[in-house]
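Record format v2
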Amino acid sequence: MTSYLWMWLAIVGAGLAMWLVKSVGHRVPEHALEHPRLVRIAALVTVSLLLGLAAVQTFATGQSLAIDARLPALAIAGLLLWRGAPFIVVVAVAAGVAAGLRALGWG
Amino acid sequence: MSRLRARRLDAARQQALSVSLATGAYAISFGALSVAAGLDVWQTLALSALVFSGGSQFAFVGVIGAGGNPGVAFATSTFLGLRNGFYGVALAPIVRPWRGPRAWWGAHITIDESTAVAIAQPDDNLEARRTGFWWTGVGIYILWNAITVVGALLGERVGDPTTWGLDAAAAAAFLGLVWPRLQDRRALATALIAAAVTLALTPITPAGIPLMVAAMVAVLAGWPTPRRPSVALVTDTSAGMPSTRDRGNA
């Protein structure tokens, strides 16, 4: 029973802590947001995080890296983006390619 | 112009919807994993409703499943979620005015995907950025919690979402979001270095660290004032970089 309560405490605590973490960035003062350096950095952080997320999502499984069905799927997604395909098509085709390759027993 | 704006709004909604579906579907494995780790259905749902950050939730139940205590689970979850703190800075102009339920919810749905869709919209179109943020954040919140319950109830009968290629879909979504922003050479170079560093650190640092280092790479790259201000990123971003590809199509 006690360990059950501890679990609940950890869950609610984790929720509260996460909300506080998420709130911090929103509290940056208005005038600081207009500083050219911050604007420049924000733009670079954006592209870096997005491409970093894409890379992790493509190669990482937990803490190990692997080349599997996700890579050809991402390559085809890149090709479609280059051809100007709609976002939803790109995402759906990537899922289809990976699922198809796995159904065939690869990756 | 108004037609163009409407099409951009549609693009934001379309992206929000596809990202919500691809991300929300992952909650089925979270629900199943959580129950397998020994949490009950209510605790599992509470994690999704209160913590609402995928990586942190998986880490929380991972620690418990491996026999760790709730305190360690709490610390790991919070540590992994620290990157969400940075997102608020990028989102600040989008979510403000910051007060009332709007602030409460705006903070709660500040996650990888809502941030990504919001900031991927053209810089000169605040409406599309707002739409991207709220639609993605609320869309994922609803699906994530609903599908968590399904996963928790189905337990081990849940299959692996990678069978359906959902991991590749998420990767493609992030690539699609960053795509229009890679035309600037400096942005492309920085992003490539950041992505390489992220991958290099993945096997040797705790989860959550690699992306924070990627952000630090960007901070370092953006710190010096560019010698030629006319081609600086500042002008690119504030002008919204009307991309050569049709953004309304993206």
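The first strand of chain A starts at residue 60 and ends at 61.
DSSP finds four helices and two strands in chain A.
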